[in-house]
Amino acid sequence: MNIKRYLDFRLLGLTGSGLLILSQFLPWFSNHSLLDIYIISTSVAIEDSFLYLFPLICGIICLVGAIVILYNLDYKINSVIINFIGLGFFLIFIIEIIPRELLYIPYAEIGFYFSVVGSILIFFEILNILITKQE
User: Among 95, 90, 86, 109, which residue's Cα sits nearest to residue 13?
Assistant: First the structure.
């Protein structure tokens, strides 16, 4: 019974991280993935173009956090810290990019929704880790 409880939140983190990484390569706005937008905006404004890689970076960081807790359950707090850092990158992305793309949000495609669902799953994993008691 205890193994099932641990397995549930481990899968939340892996699934959320996978969705964030996958969202980088799926269409977001105007049939363009964030990778396409990054390549296009690199030629225009190099300082802002790096922000389009943040969902990928966040997904990789949170995947490391999920792997840490898979490796050893004693590293629960380390996993939470790593996941908070990853979600911080995603929050920076949302705060910086979404106001610019506000007109396109009603026309957002599957990549946008994958990233939102992935970040929510990672947040629920953090909550689940924090409320489970270590036995």
Answer: 86
DSSP element (H, E) containing 28 = strand 27-29
Residue 20 domain flag: no
Q: Record the pTM.
A: 0.82
The tokens describing 116, both together, are 């939102």
User: Over the stretch 40-73, which tens digit does the pLDDT of each residue have?
Assistant: 776 666 666 778 788 889 999 999 988 888 877 7
Domain with 82 in it: 28-131
Q: How far does Cα 39 stand from its chain's mean position?
A: 21
The total of structural domains in the chain comes to 1
Q: How far apart, in whole angstroms, are the C-alpha atoms of residue 73 and residue 79?
A: 9
